[in-house]
Amino acid sequence: MRALLLVDVQNDFLPGGSLAVTDGDKIVPVVNEVLEKFDLVVATKDWHPDDHKSFASQHFGRDVGEQIDLHGLSQVLWPDHCVQQTAGSEFSSDLDAAAIDHVIYKGDDSHVDSYSGFFDNGRRHATGLHDWLQAKGVTELFIAGLATDYCVKFTALDAIELGYRVSLITDACRGVDLNPGDVDAAIKQMEASGVVMIKSEDIET
Questions:
Q1: Per its UniProt record, what Gene3D superfamilies does this chain match (predicted)?
Q2: CA atoms of 68 and 71, how far apart (whole Å)
Q3: I need a labelling partner for 143 at 20 to 30 A (CA). Which of 70, 97, 188, 205 fits?
Q4: How many C-beta neighbours within 10 Å does residue 22 have?
């Protein structure tokens, strides 16, 4: 069984959002086109409390983009984003969200970030995604979403480690590139781990 996994296609990561990914909105029509190729679709949402410690606003004198030690983990400081129950946390209104079978919420512990759809960054707690996929008999994942060099990358790497066959739909992803070259490095890291790069038009029905 294969499934489409959509990572964080949320308003705050789209143009006009508080953590906008350049051309993030361009993936939505591509995602909508591939939805019909899958019988099973699962999506993740960043779901932060308003005092999440990954927010630069929670650290006096610190700026967005700085790195700190957060309870023993290296943490990039971000603008406030995807706060629970806000418009920024909602899926893009252009996304055909009715096709999504299940939503996984991540990043709801204020003390640790959660880039991956499977675990928090300390790998101390699972999100329930793996259990849900296993219950459905899923062995192969096609991943799309935002952002290539953060949540998409870590989700794909964890999926490989958990034993899934993983393909990244490259034209249905965009990256932050906080440091120039981050996206290219993420692609190379994913490929080296066994992730297959594929274009949306090459996905078989």
A1: Isochorismatase-like (3.40.50.850)
A2: 10
A3: 70
A4: 12
